[in-house]
Specification:
This protein is of the alpha/beta class and 338 residues long. The protein is built from eleven helices and twelve strands. The chain has helices spanning 55-67, 86-94, 111-120, 135-142, 147-159, 180-189, 210-213, 217-227, 290-296, 302-311, 333-336; strands at 23-27, 72-76, 101-106, 125-129, 166-170, 193-197, 231-232, 242-245, 252-256, 269-272, 277-279, 287-289. The protein has a twelve-stranded mixed beta sheet. Helix 1 links the parallel strand 1 (23-27) and strand 2 (72-76). Helix 1 (55-67) crosses helix 10. 44% of the residues are buried. The protein binds S-adenosylmethionine (SAM) and iron/sulfur cluster. Iron/sulfur cluster (SF4) is lined by residues 32, 34-36, 39-40, 77-79, 107, 129, 333-334. Residues 32, 34-36, 39-40, 77-79, 107, 129, 333-334 line the site of iron/sulfur cluster (SF4).
Length: 338
């Protein structure tokens, strides 16, 4: 029986820098059917299953956050659609009273099968990762992925009724930077938004040199602008993306620039890893172990709420990503959730 989230009566969750925390990114698994070159090592070691939170544990934590004023939860991973109980988890979370939005970031490869069930069970928004429109290159970047599956998944998500789907594209110089205009054209044709992401130095990889493939957002925008004139928009999606509009399309072109444009001042989010570690900042190793508390007090929200509230005093002011030094963050993105 899932715990209930009672609408908040406590003061809003605020960190010691005065930032209101209203957004939780919940990594529900570290597993994935892809091995994207910037995200994972080729021979990934995943965590033992008993170290991952159960569905009931995830619901208890989510309900505790919602009680404390979190209004948006994004499911991520690893690949959230690789979780065997994804549909029932979506149903339980979307039913939490007080939650305004339940979103998901996915590689899209299983949306053909799952999009209708996710929609019916209350998932409100989808971000779909797509780094290339060329089948061979897509395969090289994801190591195991098939472009066709993702393209079919995007169509299935639209057919299921998802609105304002956003594509996420990580751009690496020399690998897929020549596709930024093609990706924007694709987004325009299919009435999708698109955000280009600068690669972050999470985890030690040897597939490429991150400093050499670094592609600043400004270069991406300049390229798009040559074909599709862009106007900077003041709209804020509540996240780190800075958006641009085109006069002849509803598509928004965003950039997420952890290196070239620090966005920590407006950070409204925290992350929970698949093993129940509450990460206060993507660019910082500090974490609070909620799994131990969950397992000491099964199904009880009060100890979790207390730990979350206390953790707010530890949220750092900003990240300090550097490409000219060995990674300071040794965990991979799939462990934290992007
Ligand atoms: N598997 C899902 C997916 O790919 O959308 C969700 C998890 S994935 C970790 C979330 C996002 O993080 C994806 O858009 C992915 O491209 C991005 N990502 C992964 N590793 C990254 C890195 N080192 N730097 C920047 N973005 C990264
Ligand atoms: Fe999997 Fe997403 Fe990481 Fe790619 S970016 S390996 S799809 S978790």
């Amino acid at each position: 029986m899932a715990p209930e989230a009672t609408p908040t009566s406590s003061p809003p969750l605020t960190d010691q820098h005065g930032r209101r925390i209203s957004y939780l990114r919940l990594s529900i698994t570290d597993r994935c059917n892809f091995r994207c070159v910037y995200c994972m090592a080729e021979n990934m070691q995943f965590m033992p299953r008993d170290e991952l939170l159960s569905v009931d544990e995830m619901v208890t934590v989510a309900a505790s956050f919602v009680h404390l004023g979190v209004r948006k939860i994004r499911l991520t991973g690893g690949e959230p659609l690789a979780h065997p109980a994804i549909v029932s988890l979506v149903a339980e979370l979307s039913a939490l009273p007080g939650l305004d939005e339940l979103a998901m970031t996915t590689n899209g490869s299983q949306l053909s099968q799952l999009a209708p069930a996710l929609k019916v069970n209350g998932l409100s928004r989808l971000n779909i990762s797509l780094d290339s429109l060329q089948p061979d290159r897509f395969k090289a970047l994801t190591r195991t992925g098939r472009l066709r599956d993702v393209l079919d998944g995007i169509q299935a998500a639209k057919a299921a009724g998802f609105q304002r789907i956003k594509l996420n594209s990580v751009i690496l110089r020399g690998r897929n930077d020549d596709e930024v205009v093609d990706l924007v054209r694709f987004a325009r044709q299919h009435e999708l938004d698109i955000a280009f992401i600068e690669e972050m130095p999470l985890g030690v990889i040897d597939e490429h040199d991150r400093a050499a493939t670094f592609m600043p957002s400004a270069d991406i925008l300049a390229r798009v602008n040559e074909t599709y004139p862009l106007t900077a928009s003041i709209e804020n999606s509540g996240g780190p993306a800075r958006y641009h509009r085109m006069a002849d399309s509803t598509t928004r072109v965003g950039v997420i620039s952890p290196h070239s444009h620090n966005f920590c001042g407006s950070c409204n989010r925290v992350r929970l890893t698949a093993s129940g570690q509450l990460m206060l900042c993507l660019g910082n190793e500090d974490a609070v172990d909620l799994r131990t508390i969950l397992r000491a007090h099964p199904g009880q929200q009060e100890p979790i709420r207390q730990a979350i509230t206390e953790a707010m005093t530890r949220k750092p002011e900003r990240h300090h990503f550097r490409l000219d030094a060995p990674p300071q963050i040794i965990r991979f993105m799939n462990a934290t959730g992007g």
